[in-house]
Input
Amino acid sequence: MMQDKATILDAFANIIGSQYVLTDPSDTQLYQQDWRGRYQGAAVAVLMPGSTQEVAALVKECARHGVAIVPQGGNTGLVGGAIAPADHPAVLLNVSRMNRVRHVDANNNSLTVEAGCILANVREVADEHQRQFPMLLGSVGSCQVGGLISTNAGGTGVLRYGNMRELVLGVEAVLPDGRIWDGLRGLRKDNSGYDLKQLFIGAEGTLGIVTAAVLKLFPRLTVSATAMMAIRSVQDAVSLLRFMQDQLGNRIEAFEIMSREQIEIVTTYGHDIQSPIDLDEPWYILTEIADSAPQWNAAAELEHVLEAAFERDLLTNAVVATDVAKADRIWALRHNISEANKTAGFTISNDTSVPVSRLPQFIERVSQRINDQIEAVTLCNAGHIGDGNIHVIAVLSRDHYTTPEHCEEAAARVNLIVHEASVELGGSISAEHGIGKMHVARLERFKPELDLEMMRTIKRAFDPLNLMNPGKIFLASGQPAAEHAAPLARTPCA
Ligand SMILES: Cc1cc2nc3c(=O)[nH]c(=O)nc-3n(C[C@H](O)[C@H](O)[C@H](O)COP(=O)(O)OP(=O)(O)OC[C@H]3O[C@@H](n4cnc5c(N)ncnc54)[C@H](O)[C@@H]3O)c2cc1C
Output
């Protein structure tokens, strides 16, 4: 238990300087609320260390006083993972000041950066060295390396490069007892025992604090072409992807799907965003192909492949962007979804995955159940069809859902429908956003018991005092496990 708050805050100030121990609500509010505005944290202070050694000293101090630590980066997470609990004395440990590039090794195609580096800056540094770091998502200007690693972020590049798990060569982390683990190795092959860095990737800050990482770089792309295509069904999207992969190999940089309803919300509520194509089909694909070989004519190749797809009746209309500005306008449709939906109504966004081949069945099943069971809802879909991760997004009308309780009750019903359908089809309840605070009870309900037991064993081994981000991934002690009490039978894959 936290004994003397003033004494502990003094101890923190002695380590990092009082200007980096924020306690005034006007200073802390920015950090205490999540990006969607759904969760309000109750941290006694926001700590902003400037180095790994300072993080280690703060963690030791917290362990000594039984204060829980919630690591935080850009606070763009979508599942309430970086929000401090109210039932336990806790601090937010924000790593934003740790934003140095420690080393660029262009010949090893690797970059060593601190956890507080913003993704956009990492991409710029790679570019300055004629390399690219391919992670790309809507929060590129705010999310940080430590957060990307801790959520095992995905984004639009997973089809070609994999998610964060595949883009990290090494990790440096402060363990819950304050020791510093130096796993900053830039190796692509290392079979000397367990791959410990992988434990921190996707751990959502429950096993320690990521302070730096070695990231994988790739040859810089020099030619690219972007297109937007109209298609009739999700099944056509799956067939079109397969056809394009047969024609273009791994030069497909992104292959994203959006439903017509989703595009209409973005063009209505986004700032000056228009569709370059008539919206007369139910589904649209946004794709980019790219290569590092400058002699490759990407635009001609894309046009050729799209013509062939049109002849096979896989699409009904398409536009190819002829310059970067037009390509950016197409991608603005995709990258402004979260912002536009937030304005359009109370948004319930799901982040499930199923095998790509089962996506048509999944969308049909979910759409039918939501439209049958939920009132005053606009159902949208958008996501990374190439990796089986379509976000089912229900936008609730603010005229109909007038109280937070009414919204939350509908959100719970929508989420259950989506989670059940994904598990029925052999999928996961979280593809890329993580579990955070939002899905803890659901994880207990849907994850097999042996998986949970192994996860709890790892958590106990690293953090026996349960001070690292308590209540995230795992239920907090004392938290009702209502969903756990009546587990849903795992239906066999259809
Ligand atoms: C507009 C928008 C679009 C998005 N699109 C995508 C998308 O396409 N794909 C996708 O995967 N995600 C997406 N996200 C979610 C989010 O941006 C990512 O999850 C991102 O990785 C979070 O990074 P962050 O620095 O903001 O982390 P935070 O939100 O600060 O933290 C996220 C989690 O990581 C933990 N954490 C943070 N830093 C550390 C650290 N140094 N050590 C240990 N734990 C830490 C926190 O405790 C928390 O559990 C989107 C978010 C927004 C707002």
